[in-house]
Hints:
The complex is a heterodimer of chains A (277) and B (466).
Chain A: E1 2-11, E2 14-20, H1 22-27, E3 33-37, E4 45-53, E5 58-64, H2 68-74, E6 81-82, E7 84-89, E8 100-106, H3 110-122, E9 126-133, H4 142-147, E10 151-156, E11 163-164, H5 168-176, E12 181-187, H6 190-200, E13 207-210, E14 226-229, E15 232-235, E16 242-244, H7 250-257, H8 261-270
Parallel strand pairs in A: 8-9, 8-12, 9-10, 10-11, 12-13
Antiparallel strand pairs in A: 1-2, 1-6, 2-5, 3-4, 3-7, 4-5, 13-16, 14-15
Chain B: H1 13-16, H2 29-37, H3 57-65, H4 69-77, H5 83-89, H6 96-99, H7 111-124, E1 139-143, H8 147-159, E2 162-166, H9 175-178, H10 187-199, E3 203-205, H11 216-221, E4 227-230, E5 236-237, E6 250-252, H12 253-262, E7 280-284, H13 288-299, E8 304-308, H14 320-329, E9 332-334, E10 337-344, E11 350-363, E12 369-373, E13 379-382, E14 385-388, E15 392-393, H15 397-400, E16 426-428, H16 431-434, H17 439-465
Parallel strand pairs in B: 1-2, 1-4, 2-3, 4-16, 6-14, 7-8, 7-14, 8-9
Antiparallel strand pairs in B: 5-15, 10-11, 11-12, 11-13
Helix pairs in contact in B: 2-3, 2-7, 3-4, 3-7, 4-7, 5-7, 8-17, 12-13, 13-14
Pfam family, one (chain B): Pyr_redox_2
GO molecular function (chain B): iron-sulfur cluster binding; oxidoreductase activity
Protein name (chain B): Glutamate synthase (NADPH), homotetrameric
Amino acid sequence: MYPILEKRELSPSVKLFVVQAPAIAKKCQPGQFIILRMDEAGERIPLTIADFNRQKGTITLIFQEVGCSTRHLGRLGAGDSILDVAGPLGQATHIEKFGTVVCIGGGIGVAPVYPIARAYHEAGNKVISIIGARNAELLIMEDEMRQVSESLHITTDDGSKGRKGLVIDPLKELIAAGEDIRLVMAIGPVIMMKSVAEVTRPHSIKTLVSLNPIMVDGTGMCGGCRVSVANKNKFACVDGPEFDGHEVDFVGLMARQRMYHEAERIEREAGSCSCHH
Amino acid sequence: MPSLRHKMPEQSAEKRRSNFSEVALGYTADTAQAEASRCLQCKTSPCRQGCPVEVNIPAFIKHIKDGQMDAAIQEIKHKNNLPAVCGRVCPQENQCEKHCVLAKRGQSVAIGRLERFAADHGQTHDNGAHPALKESLGKVAVIGAGPAGLTAAGDLAGLGYQVTVYEALHAPGGVLIYGIPEFRLPKDIVRKEIDSLKQKGVTIEVNAIAGKTFTIDELISEQGFDAVFIGTGAGLPHFMDIPGENLNGVYSANEFLTRVNLMKAYQFPATATPVHVGKNVAVVGAGNVAMDAARTSLRLGAENVYIVYRRSEDEIPARSEELEHAKEEGIQFHLLTAPVKINGNDKNWVTSLECIRMQLGEPDQSGRRRPLPLEGSNFELPVDTVIMAIGQGPNPLVQQTTPGLAVNKHGNITADEAGFTSKEGVFAGGDIVTGAATVILAMGAGKKAAAAIHDYVQGKKARNHG
Lengths: 277, 466
């Protein structure tokens, strides 16, 4: 069992857990993820490690309640335990001094981009961050991101915080202003990562994206997380989760992510899931 | 005229196609004793040569014949840590039973069924008495709680080692849990076998991913293990690299079976993991895994389930019993047929499998006649689910993070017959060494490695004290 030591509500639908998991905390690096299963009937859910404390033996998980499983998970609190947490999984982010690095987080994607931005910052890079959300209420980790960034740009779809618009707007301006960007790291909804890659492609700015496809085991066994990168099949769990954004087949990825939409509807209508009531 | 071998009572094909309960129901005590009486108790006991874990077959059969069921299971357990599993999924017809003197008449003693009978008797009549642990001879880590690892762990614990098994998934058992379906191997049976290993003193840590949560070197240098056995199996699914393989509705057999067996997707939405099974399902391949995926699809409500296999029935690698069961249940076979393309609709879902007819040419390296496409014979099989069951490769996580561990060009760990690898104190066996094979061969490898580890650790201790 993996005890939840602390719970915070970052927005009504976004929850943060600090979880006791010493073996994972000892090993994890920015860019890696874990798989948890909250109880006997639960799904195996992949979540990026948003932070870790090696001394305390804790990892921080941030997730958005989108379906039955995550809503169910969101009802747990400090003092409860998660049945299974396995990791760290996936390849760690390659960290070195590149120069100017732009870190982009959209929605819940700010959580995984934060430890990466911090590591780039600690490696001596000039980190410019752009974070965005649908509205002010859904914007997370602004303070944390500010601390590790030379400058921080905020966008919201409705203009309720920062500027009204998309995360690619400040990115376009940085490029237009002649900022010498050596690397862009973008994590968020697939459509956002796709649009970031389209903005940087004509300028040949190296762009990394972190993918979160449907996954079961997270160790390469199921092949469910396969994604086409440079027209070759890769498994996001062992080859990724980060890939060159200019080579990812985002359209295929978006289609695969909808694979269980019908099943999720059945689950909601059956009312069998314990988050239903 | 010698008596015929006793039939295995089974659920009728009509009934079982819609449930996940075990197909084969097991012998009664009377039937088991009658079958055991058929054994000639020949002095040469050729059956034993065919058993990778060297069970004293005539001895346990004699105990059953005499009605001494406790003695029978004790005799088996002397060599086999997972008898209830082996009695169900071993390819007995190609092992012990093949060598039986009575096999010449096609009526070998039903050794596998008798093993299952004895093991099930043992599970339901466990008297709870277990030998006290001996003084520890040393500490051994086992990577992977599948057939190879569990066997090695059981043998080492029996010898007096402190054994910890590390398993990446949340439940031990490996392919016995995530792969083989409930109707062929009930999970309760596997759990009981594993419980009996725990009672022998084996510690099992789940959610522990070798190569990620810890490395092999750390186990030796920081955790103080005297030796490590790697039994991580073949867990990386192969795909065909044909167009359309990433469409929705295309699964690897691993993913499909894991969702159903390990995550209990057949109880969805009472359980949270869904699985998609359409009306028409094509399973590519014809091994035991393919039969499992096909029969599972049927039980999940598919109307037409096809096995698509590029060779002929003679080359089908699945056990004959599994093939017969599949046929009885109504699985349809497209033999000498190879997929060339998967077609989908505008929503990215599978609509059909485009296939080409094959004919058999000259024998290839495997000794089997090579399948060759018949140009222009393409046809479309309308399906909404495709399951790729064409084999698995080695999982790379351990190899990638263990410097000095030699691997071959396929990524399998290089190890000798006894399990010695290129790295001091590190042993390996089962599918991770040989490539995908059977449960019993993996168990045989685990057994040999346990003996080698014992020699190695005691040799090292003697040198250190000498």
